[in-house]
Specification:
By secondary structure, the chain is of the alpha+beta class. It has a domain of about 140 residues. The protein is built from 4 helices and 7 strands, in the order αββββαβββαα. Strands 4-3-2-1-6-7-5 form a 7-stranded antiparallel beta sheet, sandwiched between helices.
């Protein structure tokens, strides 16, 4: 009888230990995911800050000194748990970064459609920044979209919920259309870009065939 109790007790302890180990593993996994998410968010903010402090001369873009001129249009989207940004510059360059990959992608300057879309987007921004707010480049709320126009004098921003900003009657519909065209062009470039496979050199030692 005692042996039966001993076996039953050992079995219970084993199950408790197994459940405790699974719980420990899950907590470790959750904590790792949180740390990765925090790292990506911090990196996103770093890239964002680096973009907002740019001057035209940093990119080799020439603008007139006697006129306030837009040289970049940045679209930020906060969808569910991901923050994304697409930046178009007056020279046709495009950058993109988000909280999922935490890296900056520089658009292919050889993609003529993408470069043309970026130039058009910045040209549209030239006609809109005067109606936007200065000093309003704070990060946006979930479910919101925001546009930032960088000029040789200041930064201008405007934003709101998706339903308002993306509505066809929105006064910012041109910025939405031009920025989405840039994002679409960037996606097309990424799809058409061939992946370069890297093979690790391996030295294979073969023995002589049996008939030698």
């Amino acid at each position: 009888m005692k042996e039966g109790y001993w076996f039953f007790g050992a079995l219970v302890l084993f199950q408790i230990g197994k459940l405790s180990y699974r719980y420990y593993q899950k907590k470790r996994s959750d904590r790792a995911e949180e740390e990765i998410a925090d790292f990506h968010y911090d990196r996103y903010l770093e890239l964002r800050d680096e973009t907002f402090v740019l001057k035209p001369e940093d990119l080799g873009i020439e603008v007139p000194n006697d006129k306030e001129t837009a040289f970049a249009l940045i679209m930020e989207i906060h969808a569910v748990s991901v923050l994304q940004a697409v930046a178009a510059f007056a020279d046709g360059t495009v950058w993109a970064f988000n909280t999922k990959n935490a890296r900056k992608t520089i658009g292919d300057n050889n993609a003529l459609d993408l470069s043309a879309a970026a130039i058009e987007a910045v040209a549209a921004g030239q006609y809109h920044f005067a109606r936007m707010r200065r000093g309003d480049a704070d990060t946006l709320l979930p479910g919101h979209i925001k546009f930032h126009i960088l000029t040789n004098h200041d930064i201008y921003s405007v934003g709101g919920p998706f339903t308002e900003m993306l509505h066809e009657s929105s006064e910012w519909s041109e910025l939405v259309e031009k920025s989405f065209k840039v994002a679409e062009g960037l996606n097309n470039v990424a799809k058409n870009r061939p992946n370069k496979r890297v093979y690790t050199p391996i030295t294979v030692k073969r023995s002589k065939p049996a008939n030698f």
